Amino acid sequence: MNRPLQWQIATIAAIRPETPGVKTFTLDLPDWMPHRPGQHYDLRLRAVDGYEAQRTYSIASAPETKGQVQLTIERINDGEVSGFLHDVAVAGDRIEVRGPIGGYFVWEVPLGGPLMLIAGGSGVVPLMAMLRHRAAAGSQVPARLLFSARSYDDLIFREELDRLGADGSGLEVVYTLTRSQPSGWRGYGRRIDPAMLATVAGPLGRTPLCFICGPTLLVEAAANGLAEIGVPVSRIRTERFGPSGS
Amino acid sequence: MADDFVTRGFVGRRQITSAANTQRIPPGQHEVKDFPVLSAGPTPRVPLDRWSFSIEGFVREKVSWTWDEFLKLPARQFTVDIHCVTTWSKLDTRWTGVSVDTLLEHVDLDPRAAFVTAYTIEGYTTNMPLPDILNGRAFVAYEYDGLPLAPAHGGPARLVVPHLYFWKSAKWVTGLRLMDKDRSGFWESAGYNNHGDPWKEQRYTGD
Amino acid sequence: MEAVDDDLNRAMMLDGNAVAGRFFALFGAEMTANLTECASCGQDHMMGALLAFTHAPGVVLRCPSCQAVMFRLVETPRGIYFDARGAAFVRIER
Predict the structure, then answer these.
(1) Residue B122 — very low, low, confident or very high, per pLDDT cuts 50/70/90?
(2) Is the pLDDT of residue A246 over 50?
(3) Does the pLDDT value for residue A2 go beyond 70?
(4) Which of B150, B192, B205 comes nearest C57 by C-beta?
(5) Nearest-angstrom CA–CA distance, A181 and A175
(6) pLDDT at C2 (0 to 100)
(7) How far apart are CA A57 and CA C36, in angstroms?
(8) Which of A101, A104, A238 sits opposite C21 (nearest CB)?
(9) C3 falls in which pLDDT band (50, 70, 90)?
(10) What is the ipTM of this complex?
(11) DSSP A134
C-alpha cells in the first residue's frame, strides 16, 4: 500500500488523433506499474525560467498493457497544458508524470457488478480503461455505458466501443448526442435525464455499481438522476472534470 | 535529476506587460487581461430583498442598510489595479460603489476599535487593521465595468481593498465587524499572510 | 447569460479525485478511498467524493451533503498548511 509517489520522465511513444480536438498520447514509462482502471497520472510542464503548469489526466489504457500508458486528452480552448500537448509536443518528447493515482474512482473485475458507466465527453476516458480491462480479463460482468457527446464525430473510441458492445460479453453501449445528430440517427438526442437512466440502467437491477465522469454539471445531473430512480447513493461514484472543454 | 527537467518547447501562457506598466506590477505578479474567477465555494444566491449590509462590533450602535437604502448612498467610480495572491494582476479595473469612509460616517467608532473583519453571506471572512480600510483605501462595489457586479465575481456587492492581495476583497460581503483584537480570517488562518501587502510580497504566514 | 454566470463556480467545481496526488504526497498513501466525517452535519463520505474548489488561493474541500468547509490545503514555501477543523475524523485504511 505504501509506495513512494515520484515524478518520472516519460517519453511520448506515439500521438494518435481520436476525434477533432482529442488525441491519445502513448507514454513509455521507465517506472511503469500496473494501474487500477479509473486512476490517473499527474503531468507537469516546466519552462526554462522555472514556470510550471500541472494537470491530471485519466489513464485510458488497461493495466494489462504493460510498460506504457495511454492518456487520451481533449484540447481545451486556451488550455495551457492541453494546448501545448496538442500543438507543440511530438513523439520522442519527454514529459514529467507522477502516478498512478486514485483509490475512489476505480473499478476492477474482482469488485463485481453489474456496472453502470456514464460518460460526458472526455469523461469516457477512465471508463474506457475499465472497459478495456474488463475485456482483457474476459469478464462477463453485465455492464452498460451511457455516453453523452455533442455529435457523432465527438464520440471518442466509438469504433472500439461498438466492437466491445457487440462481443457478447454482456456489455451494451448507448450513445446520446446532445447538439447534432446524423441523418437517420435513431439513438437518443438529448441530455441525460432520469427517464433515459431508467431505460438504460433498468436491466442492471436495483443496485448497479455506478461510475459517472465528465463535465461537473453533467455528472451532478446524472448522479441526481440515478438517485431519483432509486439507485442507492453508496453505489454511485463520480469524477468531475470541471467545465466542458469548449 | 527530475528537478532540473525542462519541457522542450513549453513557455507557458503569460501576458507580456508594456514597459509603461511594469512598475504597476508588484513582485512575483504577472498581468492578465481577462478576469479570473476564484472561489472557495459555490456562488451564493442572494435575493436583493433579503440583502443587507451592516457595520457592527466596536461601534456605539450597529447600522444596517437594505439594498434600496444602500443604493441611495453617495457612490462613485473607482479605477484601481488589483493583485491576486495566485500571481495575476489586473490593471485599471473599473468599479462603482460606496467608499468605506462614507459608510463609517454613519457609525460612532468605539475608541478601542482597531481591527476589522469583513464577513460574507456564506461564512468567508477576512481581517485587516482598521487603517487599511480608511482614507479612501476601501470601498463596497456593486458594479464592475459599468454593469451590475456578476454573482461569480461577488455580486450583488463585494468589498474592494486594492492595496492588499485580492483575497481581502471579500466577495458577497454583508458587513464589517469592528474589533479590538485581530482575528484571522478564512485564508489568514490557513497559511496566508495576516496582512497581505503585495508590494512587500506578504503572501504566506511568516513572509 | 445569467445562468451560465451563476453556474460558473459550480461548473468549475471538482472533487477529491482532483487532489488525490497532493494527498498522496502529503500522507504518503492513497487517501481518496478513506472515509471522513463532516464536523458540521455528521455525514460520512470518502475523501474522493468531497467537493473540491481548486480555483482559489488554496484547495477547499467541502462536504457534499451540507457544503460546509471540511479541509483547506495551502502550499507555501515553508510548508503545507492542512486545516482539518471542519472534519470530525478521517479513517485511514491499512
Answers:
(1) confident
(2) no
(3) no
(4) B192
(5) 11
(6) 36
(7) 25
(8) A101
(9) very low
(10) 0.90
(11) H
Interchain CB contact of B8 with A (< 8 Å) = yes
Three cell numbers at B100? 468605506
CA distance, residue B6 to nearest chain A CA (Å): 5
Task: Write the pLDDT tens digit of every residue in A155-196.
Answer: 999 999 999 999 999 999 999 999 999 999 999 999 999 999
**pLDDT tens-place string over residues C54-83:** 989 999 999 999 999 999 999 999 899 999
Task: Give the count of alpha carbons within 13 A of B46, CB side only.
Answer: 25
CB contact under 8 A, A217 and C7: yes
Domain A7-101 = CATH 2.40.30.10: yes
Tell me the domain boundaries of chain A: 7-101, 109-240
Cα A73 to Cα A4, A15, A121, A177, B145: the distances in Å are 26, 10, 11, 20, 36
Q: Coil, helix or strand for B136?
A: coil
Which CATH fold topology does B50-182 show?
Answer: Sulfite Oxidase; Chain A, domain 2 (3.90.420)
- C9 neighbourhood in chain B, CB within 8 Å: 37, 39, 41-43, 152
Instruction: Determine contact: B48 vs chain C, CB below 8 A.
Output: no
Residue B86 near residue B146, CB atoms below 8 Å: no
CATH number of A109-240: 3.40.50.80
At C48, list the grid cell.
474522493
Q: Which of C7, C53, C78 lies nearest to residue B40, judging by beta carbons?
A: C53
What band does A245 get if pLDDT is binned at 50, 70 and 90?
low
Q: Is residue B1 scored above 80 in pLDDT?
A: no
Q: Cβ–Cβ of A45/B12 closer than 8 Å?
A: yes
Question: Using CB atoms, which residue from B41, B123, B151 is nearest to C6?
Answer: B151
Please provide residue B54's backbone torsions phi and psi, each rounded to the nearest 5 degrees: -125, 155
Residues of chain C found within 8 Å of residue A105, distances taken between Cβ atoms = 17, 32, 48
CB contact under 8 A, A242 and C29: no
Chain A contact partners (≥3 CB pairs within 8 A): B, C
Strand C87-91 to A143-149 pairing: unpaired
Say whether pTM exceeds 0.90: yes
Interchain CB distance below 8 Å, C55 and B38? yes
